[in-house]
């Protein structure tokens, strides 16, 4: 096992996840990340080298997540930081006009995926709990509802509740927090649901330069909190 700290990041191939990979790499951490695109996973492995470990994983596939967790822990050790970042947003739509399939797809990734990843990695983390942190990426829309994105809001509200419950189950020394990125970030998800906000939004790279040091500062004192990243100045 490397003496460097290990972070596991879901949704590591695009957006916030991709930017965070760079920041953790620069900080000297070892990164185990996953995404659903084989081409983008291959690009990450090519760019960042053998020190890190990137895999093609759909977090809504519980059995695949379990085998990935075993692989990561056997090759790299137990994560110091587990960062549930992978998520989808539905197309803008009235709730009554959404298909059951659209609703289920969002929930499978955004809620079930968080559950599967926590369930797979926590048994490795709990026996030696000191300093280990789980960060579940939430949203402003996980605390305040918004028209036309009801599935996404519902999923992020669920992440908030799941995190608060998990925090009460963890041993002393660990933490689970729900983290709102702190406003709009200029990436494909924002373009899809709120394109009028793109021009004023910071890029994922700009956001990560503020967010990753903040995430690295989290500790057991933050257990159970619903936090918001500091703003990008």
From the structure above, extract its key features.
233 residues; alpha/beta; Rossmann fold; 7-stranded parallel β-sheet; 7 helices; globular
Your description of this structure?
The structure is a single chain. The protein is α/β, with parallel strands linked by helices. The protein has helices spanning 15-26, 38-48, 62-76, 100-125, 150-169, 188-193, 204-216; strands spanning 6-9, 30-35, 53-56, 81-84, 133-137, 175-180, 226-228. Strands 3-2-1-4-5-6-7 form a 7-stranded parallel β-sheet, sandwiched between helices. Helix 3 runs parallel beside helix 4 (100-125). The model has no long low-confidence stretch (mean pLDDT 93).
Spatial arrangement of strands, main beta sheet: 3-2-1-4-5-6-7
Order of helices and strands: EHEHEHEHEHEHHE
Q: For this structure, what is the CATH homologous superfamily? A: NAD(P)-binding Rossmann-like Domain
CATH class: Alpha Beta
Which geometry do the CA atoms define? globular
**First-to-last CA distance:** 37 Å
Count of all domains:
1
Beta-strand share of residues: 5-15%
Q: Oligomer, anyone?
A: single chain
Number of strands: 7
What is the secondary structure topology, with strand pairs?
Elements: E1 6-9, H1 15-26, E2 30-35, H2 38-48, E3 53-56, H3 62-76, E4 81-84, H4 100-125, E5 133-137, H5 150-169, E6 175-180, H6 188-193, H7 204-216, E7 226-228
Parallel strand pairs: 1-2, 1-4, 2-3, 4-5, 5-6, 6-7
Helix pairs in contact: 1-7, 3-4, 4-5
